[in-house]
Fold these 4 entries.
Entry 1:
Amino acid sequence: MAHAAWFGRVDYEPTWRRMQQFTDTRTTATPDELWCLEHPPVYTLGMAGRPEHVLSAGEVPVVPIDRGGQVTYHGPGQLVVYPLLDLRRLELGVRELVTALEQAVIDYVSTLGIQALARRDAPGVYVDGAKLAALGLRIRRGCSYHGLALNVCMDLTPYARINPCGQAGLAVTDLASLGASGDVFEVARALLPHLWRHLRLPGAAAVLQLEQHHAGGMQFGVDGL
């Protein structure tokens, strides 16, 4: 049993706190979930993150959080996918989880005519050296939260005010810059079957409901399996 949900655009911190709560209260019978959404502009700084990698945040808030990695940016036009998974039940190791998320993106963008690749030394998905998708995870009680951020059609200028993922001068791109059309919700629906397959989730790939449910209450819009 697994579910996928579309939340629309939701604030970062309440979503993060809800992920923690979900992970801390789930049982071995709790279905796995994939949360698909956007965030308003925010920089997040991982547990090993160095504040000096935030060069000039300006009016964008900086939120220290409990995932791995350095600093990244979330904003409108970026698809964020949070895999809330029981890794023991799925028999997935952390490296396998990272690879599955990366490969799902690589497979999806290949259907758009975009050749992308992963790097062993720097998690994420890259096109011609520019970062298209970032990963940051936390594993607690054998379960995962945080996850994947895929740049779809966004303002990329906020990346110039940080060292993305702690790498000075790292180029960042999005699907729109690579010639692909589609909004974040459409990309979420198209990416989901690839995530389902690579994460070895049970059942056929879920299809997100077309309705964009009220985001403030974090209401699920789910097709159950």
Entry 2:
Amino acid sequence: MEHVYFDHNATTPLDDKVLEAMLPYLRGRYGNASSRHELGTLSRKAVDLARQQVAALVNVQPSQVIFVSGGTEANNLFVKGAASYLKPAQVAVSAIEHPCVAKPAQDLARQGWKLRKLAVTREGQINLADVDEALKEPTGIVSVMLANNETGVIQEVAAVAERARRARAWMHTDAVQALGKIPVDFAALNVHAMTVSAHKLYGPKGAGALVMDKRLQLRPIIHGGGHEQGLRSGTENVPAIVGFGAACGLAADRMAELGPRLEKLRARLEQGLHELGAVIFGERAPRVPNTSYFAFKGIVGETLVIELDKAGYAVAPGAACSSANPEPSATLIAMGVEPELARGAVRFSLGAGNSMPQIEEFLKALKSVVTRLRSLTAIAV
């Protein structure tokens, strides 16, 4: 049985045009981009073009784009690279950050830094009053994601960045879940650094970037031959980087059409969810157009995901990176959701290939599954 895919926040399928751009560099154009011969020069030109494409999508100069292996490495490079350059002070991160920001920040707390988690509202938005309170302490690093990977809620990054700069702190945003879904403008966000990744916008896994203010000084976390302006040593993954650039080019062309279309699909989905009695998290806050995060009281999210998988639908129990963890979502707990309800959370994330007929069929399947699970719960009671 071929599954209908509703888990695009975990990863997206590789676009055919992206694959087409990558294929020459997986076959005949296999040169090392640091080599001086013709094959190396072809690879270097391809990397340079991709850098321009990524830069154009986020409104920066190509020299501000540092290619790495993905969002996790980019986040670690900023947090650890900044901490190695600065004197220990406070590191302030939102309570809903992805683990690849939260865990490096926790690690700094073992190295003389003071970790401060910034509170969010019940709708999952950063609490600016708590940011103001936190920044009364000497602060070196602030990191607040642009769009949450579970709820899809868009954060007021520019407002946080203004406060961070006044406090003379370095401001970073993880924009992985926002890129390609909403306009992302580095200058407008007023941040010092930003993380982006290819495989969330129909590009390949294994490519990402840290976008940086030219005046920012970081220490590398990977040492070697001095690639990527000395910040990320290692032979460039040319096919993946080329794919990243191509995906960014496609995203720039498609975003104006794709966003409203996905928002219409989500509106129909959530109408059906309400009719079935679901609780939708963060629905009153601004969200990226493709994401819905919901739960049914008395039904465990993992169970619902398994039953929907059997019915031919791929959804996720919260964040894909933590799906093996039986604990309730840290994001939902930070939002004040009761642990029992949080354990029921299911994330539904749309993509370019989804359609209204798929939503209608999904709602029928969901109604059947939920009705059966509720009856089993009633029998058990």
Entry 3:
Amino acid sequence: MLKLDNISVDLAGARVLRGVSATAHVASTVAVVGRNGVGKTTLLRTIMGLVKPKQGRVLFDDEDLLHRPAYHRAELGIGYAPEDRVIFPTLSVEENLRLPCEVQNFDTAEIDDRLSSVLVVVPQLKDMLGRSGAALSGGQGKMVALGRALMIGTRLVLLDEPFQGLAPALARQYGEALLRLRSVRPDLCVMITESNASLLMDIPNQTLTLERGAIEPSAIEAGATEAGAAGH
């Protein structure tokens, strides 16, 4: 489904990503772990078209996404929850959730169905629907950002540092939501970045370790082994 082919990115004259190659398959959850500053956020922004790489390709069903404007990602069923959430403060939680589908001109029935599905995965959002985006705590904003990404992300969802700053109770709820996601949307591909791998528990099927802007060889070998096992 998603293939990163020799991605290198320079920011402010410094090499941030160095020849990153990896594959994320349908019905898989891939964790990209590493210390702060190793390029995890830059990697997701590159996939989303928000950062232009120095070299490489981002293939989605064999099409290079780098040839498409960033706003076309939503049309392809790709959802994104950035590290800083980006919740619109003047909109209610429900309006924030519906917004990406409305921008894509989905009909009301389709949006209602998607919202119902999201509320099954993230039931904590039910009591927040009428709340203003400005009234959310940081942790609640993370939950809303997850729900919004799931509204539009029917094939691939990218979650950037979702557990960062979450209180233990909310972190547990977030993890439970990701586990429910497997049963509600078994074909979805999810990519999660995280600095603290222990917070991910048994959520990912595959873990890639990013160090100094490059995927560690052991992570690539492990990913290849898991992909081969899935094929059998």
Entry 4:
Amino acid sequence: MIKRIFLNFKRYTFLMSQMVSRDFKVKYKRSVLGILWSLLFPLLQMSVMALVFSQMFKFRMEGVNYLVYLMSGLIIFNYFSEASNSAMTSLVTNFPLMKKIYMPKYIFPLSKCIFATINFLLTLIPFLLIILFSGDKNTHCIINMYYIFLPFAYLCVFLFSIGVGFILSTISVFLRDIFYIYGIILTMWQYFTPTFYDISMLTPELQKLFYLNPLYHYITFTRTIILYNKMPDLSSWLWCGGTAIITLIIGCIVFKLKQDKFIYYA
């Protein structure tokens, strides 16, 4: 079974790469700066967010570079938001193609998640510049040996996004209202994810609720390394890996059970 899945994936690798390439061409079509917007947009967004929260709302965290704290949470949430949103619409927008030729249907949401991942990797470049050149002598972040573990957190976000994307894309075939419902859910999810505040400000009861949010653990994992120069503890590793794998498995099961019915709702 595993061998068959691997061979099938390998067989359609070229097609998936073409779909990712198509997404890039469509996104930056008639754009003067083109792919440079993948670097400039997050940098400009970070600047605006930093101005709003650090200057207007006077958010501060003692002994911590607040700009890096804010951005480390924001880029992960934005990555998940883009990946899950684009995966959700991938099947519906590609119904005409699905009617003409056969291809594994999982390619559509998966290619969207890969495209979002490439964008995310590009945003890490301006984020690294902020890490290196922001903060004062007390809050300046340094590159430490634990950075080699950061890809684990980003891989977990990727797997989690695929799982959620499979679930959402399946639901969207049968219930188009999910396009609007998920926008509301994402807005609520963002406020329940500590991107611009510390959960220590909340009551112990609310903090326990936040622990159920997978994005909280992915963000905390990265902040432990970048801001506090520490190795994340074992529970953090288990929460990140466990939620990512479980969500991916559930997403694959839901998608596989319903994929044969997709064509009837095209």
